[in-house]
Specification:
12 helices, N-(1-d-carboxylethyl)-l-norvaline Dehydrogenase, domain 2, 2 domains, binds NADPH dihydro-nicotinamide-adenine-dinucleotide phosphate, 8-stranded mixed beta sheet, alpha/beta, Rossmann fold
């Protein structure tokens, strides 16, 4: 069993701490507002008065606070305890924030692992919990057994920004899916059809359309948007235009889908109407040299 410290006992920090205790680890906890540690003390956690004391108490410290401004504030208070320790920062942020934190923490003499939690607090330790990690490979290898107690642990590479990049990309896919769901539900709602009833049709349809994505991924990777086209972009631009016209006629807002039609039209006007809609990827991807 490992000696582990946790910095931050919000909803997620509590879940991480509870899981580590259930798995028999010796846990030291610190939170900016002390009363949040109370339920954990009864379960065997030891509370310390400062983030510095928490880092000093264990080889590995897991930090999970609101954002990187909060992370930086915690490190400001605890910098002198960091040499020789390992910090695993599961706070949500951007790749640039993770890289800057890695530089700062390693500069202070500690090993740094960044992480992205793909789970809600009740999911921690369960079969669907996934945590992405990047940064020090040695730190991941040394603490992988304990980290796996929180959920599947996927190490993505030594660049500390990779966990955040993958985390945010996965969430982007989720929000795109949610946007389609919200728009479709608003459209049927305009005629009094409940979202729950409509979902009996929408759910299987969305699942079937997921089957298109590996083919789009192949086109994106090869740059060949003209291969095996069965539903060309020009046709789909006309179809999306119909959807947005009907949406306005039904008195529903078009905000969620307007940007997609703009991209379809731009690509169509540039002469790619005969190709697949995966071609709009070329309009949004980072241009080489940047
Ligand atoms: P909460 O709002 O429940 O808790 C926030 C935590 O951050 C508290 O411990 C709070 O301390 C601490 N905090 C905020 N500002 C500071 C500061 N300046 N200095 C020190 N501590 C500070 O958030 P969650 O626990 O839900 O989320 C924590 C992280 O986990 C976030 O980055 C979030 O994006 C990520 N996450 C959360 C998920 C969820 O579903 N909840 C899912 C996946 C990731 P205090 O108690 O003193 O206010």
């Amino acid at each position: 069993m490992a000696n582990i410290s946790i910095l931050g006992l919000g909803a997620m920090g509590q879940a991480l701490a509870t899981r580590f205790l259930q798995q028999g680890h010796r846990l030291t906890v610190w939170n900016r507002t002390p009363d949040k540690a109370v339920p954990l003390l009864a379960k065997g956690a030891r509370e310390v008065k400062s983030a510095k004391d928490a880092i000093a108490a264990s080889d590995v410290t897991v930090m999970c606070v609101l954002d990187y401004a909060a992370s930086a504030a915690v490190i400001d208070q605890a910098a002198s305890a960091l040499p020789g320790r390992t910090l695993v920062n599961l706070t949500n942020g951007t790749p640039a924030q993770a890289r800057a934190m890695a530089e700062r923490v390693t500069g202070l003499g500690a090993a740094y692992l960044d992480g992205g939690i793909m789970a809600t607090p009740p999911m921690i330790g369960g079969e669907h919990a996934l945590i992405l990690y990047s940064g020090s490979k040695a730190a991941f290898d040394a603490h992988a057994d304990a980290l796996k107690d929180l959920g599947a642990a996927n190490y993505l590479g030594t660049d500390a920004g990779l966990a955040s990049l993958h985390d945010l990309a996965l969430l982007s896919g989720m929000y795109g899916l949610f946007a389609g769901f919200f728009h479709a539900s608003a459209l049927v709602d305009s005629e009094g059809i409940p979202a729950g009833a409509f979902f009996k049709l929408l759910g299987p349809w969305m699942t079937a359309m997921m089957g298109e994505l590996p083919g789009y991924a192949e086109k994106i990777d090869s740059g060949r948007h003209d291969k095996d086209v069965v539903s060309n972009l020009g046709m789909q631009a006309a179809s999306l235009d119909n959807i947005l016209t009907a949406t306005r006629e039904q008195g529903v807002a078009t905000d969620l889908l307007d940007p997609m039609l703009d991209l379809f039209r731009k690509r169509d006007s540039a002469g790619f109407g005969h190709e697949d809609i995966s071609g709009i990827f070329e309009l949004i991807r980072r241009k080489s040299g940047k």
